[in-house]
């Protein structure tokens, strides 16, 4: 998937990186209910909710590589109604997942020409949650900055010499084999990008050629005025944002075309004492007891990959962090995890939430909330400001906890709604 900046950051924790890449590859490139081009378009829709150009640009290229229709890249008005109908659930999951209901699920699954199957919807939901959470990581670790001024950088892979799973091979224990594989992937990406650029330009030229012939025919039959009107609806316009004047493949310029209701965003979840009925209690519906089995049954093996990833982030060594905070590693990580879930209205009856204020200093809580709830507002200064005495790898660890806790929160709400629909 050519996630160079992401893999470099995650490379501080190689075991987690391996688990993440397996899940990413399975979601995007292995057998599953959804066509490959649709998977990447759904990823574009998800990333656009947080204005994450890094991920949108990545999946624009992957979408075209998978044989996707370039016209779709003009925005939601140019895609099939079935995909466009996913917009509502995308919006809700990205910003206020507690609002999702079985009615939203029923609307997508109702019998019609554009209905979704349960398996397709589960695949789509996992993709949406994955990309929303990954957008948080991208902004939280500064990967978005790599897109260049204005976020519209040329989509070129990094040079092979820069490809590494971590900054210092010796100190982080990266093997030469991993480096060799990663450099090979980078070279492969260069060749893939060249091939893709030629493919896009061929489509552009072929479309222009067909359109020119059609316009000449139209001019002969209906005159200049009607020909000009047809020219105005040039179907190659969908490629204009992908190729610059030098023929280079470039990034998406207008992310607004990939979403509706752009003003819809995160709002603080109601306090527990104000609205008892809306609180999501993990004791009633948990990943381990409910979500895992449902998602694994409807989308074979994805449950195992997700579960491994959740367990992997929980098992990452954080003794240095905990020592500096004056507590056990498991206590500190649980504080961060439960704080993130609390912001989405998910509560654990066996947890004393007073611990959150004791464990997490205010500046860290502000950072976590920003990266989790409105990542597009994160800047590099926020990353540098919290935990000044901590290593970069320890800050990345916090962002991995945010990624996984947020993803699980979205999945819990979506899978619970699907379960209620099925019942």
TrEMBL record:
Region described as Disordered: 218-244
Pfam families on file: PA26
Transmembrane segments: none
Swiss-Prot/TrEMBL catalytic activity: a hydroperoxide + L-cysteinyl-[protein] = S-hydroxy-L-cysteinyl-[protein] + an alcohol
Assigned protein family: Belongs to the sestrin family.
Entry annotated with the keyword Oxidoreductase: yes
Family annotation (PANTHER family): P53 REGULATED PA26 NUCLEAR PROTEIN SESTRIN, SESTRIN 3
GO terms, molecular function: L-leucine binding; oxidoreductase activity, acting on peroxide as acceptor
Classification via Gene3D superfamilies: AhpD-like
Main location: cytoplasm
UniProt GO cellular component terms: cytoplasm; nucleus
Gene Ontology BP, a term: regulation of response to reactive oxygen species
Entry superkingdom: Eukaryota
Protein name as annotated: SESN3 protein
Keywords, comma-separated and alphabetical: Cytoplasm, Oxidoreductase
Protein's cellular compartments: Cytoplasm
Compositional bias of kind Basic and acidic residues: 218-234
